């Protein structure tokens, strides 16, 4: 194992504020989202100062909201190396559900019952097995890599899957994981520790 892995979700976006599903589409960070990214970055700076001199590697989904969050985090933490963009950390492709609100998805669902990660329920979206395979591939690469502390800046859905794979959870269990936009999750030996950044 190369070192601890931290997982962060991007800051609040305009679509988040409107309760719209984003998937592979994108929307900019809100003022609150920028502030959340700064809070996470300052926490990373404190962790960096107490980390025994091990290097930090920041990884990010290529999507604008995550990449912007990763840049803010790196700057606030005082990290010089730019974040590494990695397609495997991208959000789940939600097909025709992207851009819809939860209420609009419920109106399209028999019985109006919705739960879990809605992007995984889109009839033309990215299958869970494909999402899990790409995120497992990223985890395997990081585990085999040189000693470093890794921070993955990802998304609500993809972040749940990534953490669930680490924790050994099945799909229903991982879909219930919380996905705050102002916290870090430290993955350690099959467990996770939540670090609130407010």
Q: Could you list some keywords that capture this structure?
A:
single chain; 198 residues; alpha/beta; Rossmann fold; 7 helices
Task: Write a compact overview of the structure shown.
By secondary structure, this protein is of the alpha/beta class.
Describe the structure.
By secondary structure, this protein is of the alpha/beta class. It has one domain: Rossmann fold. 39% of the residues lie in helices and 15% in strands. It has 7 helices and 6 strands, in the order E-H-H-E-H-E-H-H-E-H-H-E-E. The chain has helices spanning 14-17, 31-49, 64-77, 102-108, 128-144, 156-167, 171-174, and strands at residues 5-9, 56-60, 84-85, 149-154, 183-188, 191-196. Strands 3-2-4-1-5-6 form a 6-stranded mixed sheet. Helix 2 (31-49) packs across helix 3 (64-77). The radius of gyration is 16 Å and the shape is globular.
């Amino acid at each position: 194992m190369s070192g601890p892995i931290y997982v962060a979700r991007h800051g609040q976006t305009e679509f988040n504020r409107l309760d719209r599903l984003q998937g592979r589409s994108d929307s900019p960070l809100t003022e609150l989202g920028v502030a959340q990214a700064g809070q996470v970055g300052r926490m990373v700076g404190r962790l960096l100062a107490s980390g025994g001199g091990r290097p930090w590697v920041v990884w990010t989904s290529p999507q604008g909201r995550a990449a912007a969050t990763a840049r803010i985090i790196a700057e606030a933490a005082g990290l010089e190396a730019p974040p590494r963009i990695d397609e495997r950390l991208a959000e789940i492709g939600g097909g025709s559900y992207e851009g819809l609100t939860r209420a609009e998805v419920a109106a399209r669902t028999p019985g109006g019952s919705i739960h879990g990660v809605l992007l995984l329920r889109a009839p033309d979206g990215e299958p869970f097995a494909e999402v899990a395979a790409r995120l497992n591939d990223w985890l395997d690469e990081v585990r085999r890599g040189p000693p470093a502390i890794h921070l993955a800046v990802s998304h609500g859905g993809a972040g749940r899957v990534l953490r669930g794979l680490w924790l050994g959870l099945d799909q229903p269990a991982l879909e219930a994981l919380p996905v705050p936009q102002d916290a870090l999750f430290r993955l350690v030996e099959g467990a996770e520790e939540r670090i609130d950044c407010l």
